[in-house]
Amino acid sequence: MERILKILEENARISLEDLAVMVNDTPEGVAARLDEYRAAGVIRGFHTLVDWEKAGVPRVQAIIELRVTPKRDCGFDEVAAAVANFEEVDSVMLMSGGYDLCVVMTGRSFQEIALFVAKRLSPLDGVLSTTTHFVLHTYKKDGVLYGGEAADERVIS
Amino acid sequence: MMEYDKLISGAAAGMRPSGIRKFFDIAAEMKDCISLGVGEPDFKTPWAIREAGIASLEKGRTWYTSNAGLKELREEICRYLRRRFGLEYTADETLVTVGGSEAIDLCIRSLVNPGDEVIIPEPCFVCYEPITTLTGGVAVPIALQAADKFKLTADQLRAAITPKTKLLVLPFPNNPTGGIMTREELEPIARVLRETDVIVLSDEIYAELTYGDVRHCSIAALPGMKERTVVVNGFSKAYAMTGWRLGYACGPKPVIDVMTKVHQSAIMCAPTTSQYAAVTALKNCDADIERMRQEYDARRRFLVARLNKLGLTCFEPEGAFYAFPSIAATGMTSDAFATGLLNSQRVAVVPGTAFGATGEGHVRISYAYSLNHLAEALRRIELYLKELGVRA
Description:
Mean pLDDT of chain B: 95
Strand content of chain A: 15-25%
Oligomer: heterodimer
Distance between the termini of chain B: 59 Å
Shape of chain A: extended
Low-confidence stretches of chain A: none
CATH topology of the largest domain in chain B: Aspartate Aminotransferase, domain 2
Distance between the termini of chain A: 36 Å
Number of strands of chain B: 12
CATH class of the largest domain in chain A: Alpha Beta
Number of domains of chain A: 2
Number of domains of chain B: 2
CATH class of the largest domain in chain B: Alpha Beta
Strand order of the largest sheet of chain B: 2-8-7-6-5-3-4
Strand order of the largest sheet of chain A: 2-3-1-4
CATH architecture of the largest domain in chain B: 3-Layer(aba) Sandwich
Radius of gyration of chain B: 21 Å
Order of helices and strands of chain A: HHHHEHEEHEEE
């Protein structure tokens, strides 16, 4: 049921009991569905959304555009898999438009990321060019406003 | 010195102030207060509707419309009522008003002579009784029962009707109880009414927000009832458009014509920007209604299950966005419970008595809030119950 997934996407920590009530099912039934979703890879994981800037931990994020030569049999898959294997890399996506792979990665400093791109990504077989964009500030992430939600202006009525 | 107390009209001075307002004033002063008190959606108006409002301003549509409202809007309202509820109205049986509230006011003022009786099933929204009294009418409350799921029964209605009865207010889906009336439950009511000249003011502002298997049924859709019913509805709840102040009334042409005459003198016309936005709402936004309805439904299930678990037993509300749990387990009055909860845990709920004496022993809890907000409020309510010694 799509509704379970929609609720979980916004409230990952909700209890099985509450979830069951909300979709009019039993906790056992919902648990079974979640097992199926995990097994099928529909649910890929649960994350905590941390504002590292606020936590005072120095972390730098960058979005890197890769232009890649596709291979005859496997297109972009081989290079994408090689890039995805790096622990420093958070996300790898195949894109339409002016470049091919979008890589999101996190490091401790600008320099660390720059070195990673120069020493690890650029030399990969098939990579034609890279363009690195550093994230300067996050306003909103995964649906959450980092500046805080606007105050509720509604009055009791 | 002007002695204003002596100058103000006796009828206006005698109007009962809203019991909701009192809590709002206290809660507004309080820091870190969590409200469960609002009576409006937390969703913003869908963007397509807002954009239509902006576009109407850009095009310079800044004049009055005709008194009854844009013809295009009235025609769309008729199409919408047919599509969603099987109601058959024409544009000249339709009046666009400043929110459902104005439509209620106009309906009562257009029909009620001094001394006429207006039957008002309670608990209900707070405006019917004061407007009736201001008009010189006599409010006749019917105390709906929790055991009946706060539905109106034919026996209760029959007992309340006298030769002076002019109007029956039918406020379903109901604020504050969340109770609804199905077609089968409306039929016995209609049977009683068909033998009388009583007109029904059917306040259907929450018509889009029902959660069971059956959709809302308007009493005007029952045989022989259209001729004796004024349907009041609006855009506030269905499309999250409270601030736009736009509603409408549909009914027998002679009644709508008189309501339009009163409206013409009092208001001129409903806000033009809102009327253009509403055309888009009716044409393009059925999917938005459904999206919001599903979200309310999930919260409703969550809230009701939690309240029952806390011992604040709650019959299943099937409409609107309120739960109306019983606080009998605490042995307190609604007012004492709500005041204590506010002072102790800074959670604002509305005492059931704000909606009529029969609301005693209940409080109204709105679920027009995010799940996280509801969860935090429930956590605090549990602490309050522990403090009272009601929970271990």
